[in-house]
Amino acid sequence: MSKRTIFNGRLEFKNSKSFERVKGLYEQRIETFYKDDILFRMDQITEEENCAITIPKHVGQGTEKSWKNTVQLLEYISQYAISGKVQAWMTENGQVLLSSDIEPEGDKAAIINYRKGVELHQEGKADEAIEAFDKALNTFEKHSLALEKRAYAKLMNQDIDGACKDFCQSIEHYPQNPEAYLGRARVWIEKAEYEKAKEDLTQTLKYAVPMQPVFWKARRLKAKAHLNLQEWDKAIFELKFFSKRTYLPEDPNYQWKRASLVQYGCLLWKEGDMDAATAQLQEALRYNSATGISDQEIQDALSDLKAETEYDHSRFRLLI
pTM to 2 decimals? Predict the structure, then answer.
């Protein structure tokens, strides 16, 4: 039975010799092992000039067997890659049935140093992470993900200009990378260049899929850019989608759920939709106050709404 299949990502190879070998192995295994029951032929996903396999936001239909065959084949050829990541999902009626993250593994210096950098960054050790990413890039200078992750580490260190340069270089090598566009949008927001931020967040949404946290981060930050430009209707549009989404506690978007609901509720209040505003603020009380919005603050707003008090513009502040 056919179901929705989604693939998104890229695998990069060090040189044309390695890439030519992978192309041959890919087609050979399609015929030998999978009997053509596969979702992509090699000529559909290759970037010859960049020695890369790129699958930008592919959404299609396929059987579970075809999906698993394709994932196994990509896992096999990823051992020859020097960098990259491909994510895959199979869904039905909006529910994820199967998922897979495909990344290069092995003892190549670029792979080892990149992975070390990611771990150090996750531990909050920005300087050490940057050093590890430097080593990965010394081995493979077109490592688009190392450039992107180094940029995020530089953001952690408040090196805004250095981060911007790395994000730009990452996008130059991998123009379909949603994480790099999101990161550069954060730079533009820091610089109060909100129109530029909106452009990059539009690109993030273009290349990300809803199963990826980056998709919803982009929704929230796009609402933030609209708010700074006083584009209230557009901010409401983005917050409506972000606030309706259910996030697991381990999802980085979860911590913003309360703030987004309160922000959305206040905007609806401002627009005169008191019932919808009340519903959003009541929903916000179900989530923790890690973002600094107390229960009492929400209860005070609900009391004013119940009394049908006109929206007080002094109450507004940027929460997201």
Answer: 0.93
